[in-house]
Amino acid sequence: MTAQKYKMTMNLNVLQHLGLNLYSNIPAVLSEVVSNAWDADSSQVEITIESNEITIVDNGCGMTSDDINDKYLNVGYQKREQGSPITEKYKRPVMGRKGIGKLSLFSIANVIEVYSCKDGIKSGLVISSIELKDKIKNGEVEYYPKEIEESNEFLESEGTKIILKDLKKRTSNTVPFLRKRLARRFSVIGSEYYFKVLINGEPISVEDREYFHKLQYLWVYDEKDLSKYSKLSPNLEDEPKLRNGNINNTDLYVKGWIGAVEKAGDLNENKENLNKIGIMVRGKLAQEDILINFSEGGLYTKYLIGEIHADFLDTDDEEDIATSSRQSIIEDDDRYIKLKEFIHSELKYIAKAWNENRKERGTEEALSIPSIKDWFNELSRSHKTKAKSLFGKINQLSLDPISKKDLFKHSVLAFESFKIKENLDEFDKVTPENLSQLTELMANFDDIEATLYHQIITERLKVINLLLKKVDQNDLEKVLQEYIFDHLWLLDPSWDRATETPLMEKRFTSIFEDSSTALNAEEAKGRFDIKYKKTSGKHIIIELKRASVKTNTTTLLSQVQKYSKSMKKILRQIDSNEPYEIICLLGQELTDWEDEEDRENTKTNLKTANARIVMYEELIQNAQIMYSDFLEQNKKAGRISRLISSIDMDL
Question: Which of 38, 117, 286, 471 could form a disulfide with 281 if both were Cys (CB 3.0 to 4.6 A apart)?
Answer without folding.
Answer: 286
